[in-house]
């Protein structure tokens, strides 16, 4: 009797991610800065009097709505934009990528609000992966950058500052391989006969779904708080200039720009995907 296929699998019988998934995951955590700026520009247009801290709370709200599947949080006209490029990989894979891309946009938006630009895609990707790894990611960054002195390589509040300007590129390259391997191992685990996979960031085997995603999202929010520390009292000057550059644009034009950046991100991910 022919067995029914299991399109929801994200781990193959060999114990490795299904074809194309690992590449898609790495692209998902590397959201390009123009999309981040377009999202922040829309928030700034909608809430012109908000401080950096107030905008950050809206970013957090949008993020949690997006990952729990709220209808109000889907698409370019509300909450975090969804790129959605991996439908062919199956439901679980698509859910995994959706969670990662929303987390990446959330983390990079917070980085910008803290004055940490995300122009360098390698730095941005590492920052997102470290945040998704929680305290383990913080400890790895601390150990590799010698931020911890005399008390071991434990979590360090505000460690994301090392991804700011004027930091040597060698620091990023030195941690890239190890952090990426740890990230992939933490994100994927084999269940049963190595057919059904599920996401397990932070070592917690939670199914991808509304309640599980909200729990995971809260853990990401906690990790981001540790990574970035306190928000500045005002929006950083460079970011303010960039997101206010089109202050006279209409709401429709701002939304149009956001949609264009989503399409550009989708195109980028589809290029050389094999």
Describe, in plain words, how this protein is organized in 3D:
This protein has 274 residues and is an all-alpha fold. It has helices spanning 21-28, 33-46, 52-67, 91-113, 121-132, 135-145, 169-187, 210-228, 237-243, 251-270; strands spanning 188-191, 196-199. The longest helix is centred in the middle third of the chain and has 23 residues, at 91-113. The model is unreliable at 1-8, 70-89, 147-151 and 190-208 (pLDDT under 50). It has 10 helices and 2 strands. The chain has one domain (21-268). Strands 1-2 form a two-stranded antiparallel sheet.
- Distance from first to last alpha carbon: 33 Å
Specify the number of helices: 10
Helix content class? 40-55%
Beta percentage is under 5%
Q: Indicate the structural class.
A: mainly alpha
Provide a concise account of the structure shown.
The chain contains ten helices and two strands.
Tag the structure with descriptive keywords.
274 residues, 2 strands, 3% strand, mainly alpha, two-stranded antiparallel ribbon
Give the arrangement of secondary structure elements:
Layout: H1 21-28, H2 33-46, H3 52-67, H4 91-113, H5 121-132, H6 135-145, H7 169-187, E1 188-191, E2 196-199, H8 210-228, H9 237-243, H10 251-270
Antiparallel strand pairs: 1-2
